Amino acid sequence: MLSADFVIATAVGYVCLLFVLAYFGDRRARANKKSFLHSPWVYTLSISVYCTSWTFYGAVGNAARSGLEFLTIYLGPTLVFVGWWFLLRRLVRISHNQRLTSVADLLSSRFGKSNRLAVLVTCIAVIGIAPYIALQLKAVTSSIQAVAGSSEFGQGSLAGIDDVGLAFGIAAGMALFTILFGTRHVDAKEQHHGVVAAIAFEAVVKLTALVAVGIFVVYVGGGFEAIFSRAAEMGVSTPTANSFDDRWLTTLALSVAAIVCLPRQFQVTVVENSDENHLRTAGWAFPAYMLLMSLFILPIAMFGLTSMPAGSNPDMFALTLPISQGQDALALFAFIGGFSSATSMIILESIALSIMVSNHIIMPLVLRYSAVGPSGDGQGVSRLLLVARRFSIVLILSLGFFYFFFTRDSNALAPIGLISFTAIAQFFPVVLAALFWRDASLKAATAAIAAGFVVWVWCSFLPSFESVSPQVSLLLREGPWGIGWLRPQALFGLEGLDPLTHAAVWSLTINVATLTIVSLFTTQSALERIQATLFVDVFRQGSAPQGNFVRGSATANDLFFVAERVLGERRAAAIFETAARESGVDPDMLEPSSEFIGKLERELAGSIGAASAHVMLSKVVSGSDVSLEEVMQMAEENQQVIEYSQQLEKTSAELRSTAQKLEDANAQLRELDSQKDEFLSQVSHEVRTPMTSIRSFSEILLDPGDIDEGQKQHFVSTIHQESLRLTKLLDEILDLSALERGERTWDNVPIDAEAALDRALRVCDGMLRQRGMRVELGERAPATMVEGDADRLCQVFINLVSNAVKYNDAEAPVLRVTSSVKSGNYVVDIADNGPGIPKAERKLIFEKFARGQHGAVEQSGAGLGLAISRQIVARMSGSLDLVPGPLPGACFRVRLDVMP
């Protein structure tokens, strides 16, 4: 058995290690060596501060008592982070734009920078978190007792110290650590790199410890199956009767709200976020962390129920199981894991709450009862803020300690945590309304949170004192003044529900109903409407600068003195020097613009909250406040300018598109005009050649002279041949023109394409024999039916064969013809071993009058055959292409669809 002194010494040593980590984290941050601290992995690990001693110890106890209910506290956060694009991304973007410091600052800023709402949220958070801090103190004291053993407890250095004294010492130590490293800077928006580094380290420690205990239990128990089989044999089973019932759904909903609204979760997830893209990593890494944390919960619970003595506290199974097996080292490691869970929660929760208290309660009081002007040493407000935060930390931990003192006899950890979850869940409907509902009003938000809080106090907080107060016990049984329908756990006569479900249903129902109804029947102030637009339309604003609604005649000196008091001399000077440099003037000559005042307000908001910053500047900038009507007029004018700019941009885009279309149309017209000129030139050339011959021989025949009959006959024959050639040329031109314009009557009917090919080969047989051309008939398709015109298809084949004959100058000319059916297409390849078609002419070979260099010199013809053939095949829904062939010359391929 471990001694109490050794356990305490180990815990103190662990805290010292956290001191060292936090110290070097801060030093590294101040030295601008932030690469590791800005890692998305450190950010994700810091979010795991959600896993407190409740999830370390209490989840095992909850699994032993209520079965699968423990899963809800893991599933809720998992759902939120898997869907980070919907909610968390919006929260982080708004926080960066508005320099928010807490959930109270978020709601205050959204609802007209109302400090009253911020005070309400802060007070509820401080009161609501007290049970949660007490839970951590109880878990730590219980774990020390479990590890050291009740016989050892109260001996050695702990002699004379009971669990209350031990809890007080732990609270004092946590307060000291938090004050030293959580209140080093006055800027609440500035990330606490040292603390975050320590929290990330603790996340690794508690995960490793719980997984180590889980692996040990599975090993000792003989595996997962053996553990559950033994439990079944002993009559111990996982309670499933209440799984997925109303309590299960309630705890799931509360955990969803908690991961967003708990002050420490808002601090690490939103305020400490330095890069919005870190959410992408956290979106899957944090759910994976939660999965590992929950993986061994049920086996530990089942093994503890079957192997530990009756009456053992299931909350402490993670510690007592290793001890029962003689594994003191593992038990000590598990204790450190649970201690990490508790200390990380206490530290970060205290920091977040202290910022809320100082910014929204103490600072407004200072502004109200003291003059803020150019006097003093310039450090008063900064020092006051730091003192206020340190005092707040002590106050918050004191409240947690007192709650522990009064409720320390409670046996279970989970119910205590759920009391806090229900309190914090009162913020969730208003947070959603702030982000997505433009018409939600300040009066509605305030009334909704207040009403939900009152119901929570009555139905959940007050009953937690039942064991220590006879009056509370009597109130629960009979109600106030004997009014039964006002009993805290049977409000309005609703009985039979689980107490947690009862409290959550009534408080949240009244909360949402109040928010909806009051919003519908109240109007927003001008500033509320402006802030609502900034929040709801946050992704429509892009990188546009934030608007400013404070303008006035304050001098740079007045503003500097205010900034110096809140931000410190060095930072205030840096802000003013930057503004002067951007304006191109000396810092002494800086004239504060409305944009600069707006920027300064956001900088101040990062330290003292949006509401206090607004009030402070409004007091300093004399005569600066713009009336609400002016503000709305400014906003409407800005909106009109934005809409007008958007319309101009849209119209400009349409004009650019239209101009591009006109330019394309002009290019097409120029191309058509060029083609027309080229066509006329080619036609003229083709017509002129036979006409010249006809004219010349005709003139000779008109003056016969000494021409003999043989010459006359030759000249007449030439005239006739040229006339035929001219007629053929004109027929082809007319045919092609009719095909291109679709004027030629055309009816596609089912035809046998293979028969058309055979007919063409028979027609060309004489020409082939005359040229001495050998015909190779390769693969042939069977009779194949296609949609087309048989005569026209035969014309295409004849043209291709005749071209192969005319342009083939090989000594042993060869023509190869193949046909086949492939993939539903009838394909004919007609190839020859002639000179082929040069690469440069292949793109032009199907153009009108394009005969190629070889054909133009040695062969007659107008160069319209291939153009006409391609048009004919196209009318049959087919294609004619020049393709690589099996012989050295050209190869033309005809492809037609085969009829089904």
How would you describe this protein?
With 900 residues, the chain is mainly alpha-helical. The chain has a five-stranded mixed beta sheet with strand order 2-4-5-7-6. Strands 1-3 form a two-stranded antiparallel sheet. A hairpin with an 8-residue loop joins strand 6 (879-882) and strand 7 (891-897). The longest helix is centred in the last third of the chain and has 75 residues, at 628-702. It is elongated and about 150 Å long.
Molecular shape: elongated
**Rg of Cα set:** 45 Å
**First-to-last CA distance:** 88 Å
Biggest beta sheet attributes: 5 strands, mixed
Poorly predicted parts: 372-376
Number of helices: 34
Q: Main sheet: which strands, in order across?
A: 2-4-5-7-6
How much of the sequence lies in strands comes to under 5%
> Average pLDDT value?
81
Q: Which structural class is indicated by helix and strand composition?
A: mainly alpha
Helicity range of the residues? Answer: 55-70%
According to DSSP, the number of beta strands is 7
List keywords for this structure.
single chain; 900 residues; mainly alpha; 5-stranded mixed β-sheet; two-stranded antiparallel sheet; 34 helices; 7 strands
Task: Please write out the topology.
Blueprint: H1 4-30, H2 40-47, H3 53-66, H4 72-82, H5 88-98, H6 103-110, H7 115-148, H8 163-182, H9 193-221, H10 224-233, H11 246-261, H12 263-271, H13 278-294, H14 297-307, H15 317-324, H16 328-369, H17 380-407, H18 414-424, H19 428-436, H20 442-461, H21 470-478, H22 499-521, H23 526-536, H24 556-567, H25 569-583, H26 594-608, H27 610-620, H28 628-702, H29 709-741, E1 749-752, H30 753-763, H31 765-771, E2 774-777, E3 785-788, H32 790-806, E4 814-822, E5 825-832, H33 852-858, H34 865-875, E6 879-882, E7 891-897
Parallel strand pairs: 2-4
Antiparallel strand pairs: 1-3, 4-5, 5-7, 6-7
Helix pairs in contact: 1-7, 1-9, 2-9, 2-13, 3-14, 3-16, 4-11, 4-13, 6-7, 6-19, 7-8, 7-16, 7-17, 7-18, 7-20, 8-16, 8-17, 9-14, 9-15, 9-16, 10-14, 11-12, 11-18, 11-22, 12-16, 15-16, 16-17, 16-27, 17-24, 18-22, 20-22, 24-25, 24-26, 26-27, 28-29, 29-34, 30-32, 32-34
